[in-house]
């Protein structure tokens, strides 16, 4: 992967992404379930310098400091104040990285393949295994 873009549902927030993510994962923790509105989060982790917010997101980018994640620390969960789309997660444990929900990345998603699934102890019983992905019951 070289350059990609990502955007929220209404298009008010746009992100230019340089290079490949250093981690692609699914997270089944309750916090990610509530943040994404799905049974798991499909996420791609990048170094902060790989991401450039290109629209004047200051007017619409909202942040919630999640102090209850099972992984510990605080997660800064950002979303669009217009449409509610989740757009970025930053952890106090890894301030140099940002996690982007794969669903907001524009274009094909076939080249995103989870390497690991976190919090499998919370995984819905109907969700199958991902070939080649490591599974863990918590976050290492």
Automatic annotation (TrEMBL):
Q: Which InterPro entries match?
A: CENP-V/GFA (IPR006913), Mss4-like_sf (IPR011057)
Q: Which domain of life is it from?
A: Eukaryota
Tell me which SUPFAM superfamilies the record gives. Mss4-like
- Molecular function in Gene Ontology: carbon-sulfur lyase activity; metal ion binding
Outline the extent of the CENP-V/GFA domain.
4-113
Q: Which UniProt keywords apply?
A: Lyase, Metal-binding, Zinc
The record's similarity note reads: Belongs to the Gfa family.
Protein name from the UniProt record: CENP-V/GFA domain-containing protein
């Amino acid at each position: 992967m070289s350059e990609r873009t990502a955007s929220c549902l209404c298009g008010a927030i746009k992100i230019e992404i340089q290079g490949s993510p250093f981690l692609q994962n699914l997270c089944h923790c309750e916090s990610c379930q509530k943040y994404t509105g799905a049974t798991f989060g499909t996420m791609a982790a990048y170094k902060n310098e790989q991401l450039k917010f290109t629209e004047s997101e200051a007017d619409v980018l909202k942040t919630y400091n999640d102090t209850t994640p099972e992984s510990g620390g605080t997660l800064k969960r950002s979303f669009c104040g217009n449409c509610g789309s989740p757009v970025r997660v930053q952890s106090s444990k890894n301030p140099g990285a940002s996690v982007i929900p794969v669903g907001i990345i524009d274009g094909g998603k076939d080249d995103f393949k989870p390497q690991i699934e976190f919090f499998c102890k919370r995984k819905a019983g109907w969700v199958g295994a991902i070939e080649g992905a490591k599974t863990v019951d918590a976050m290492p």
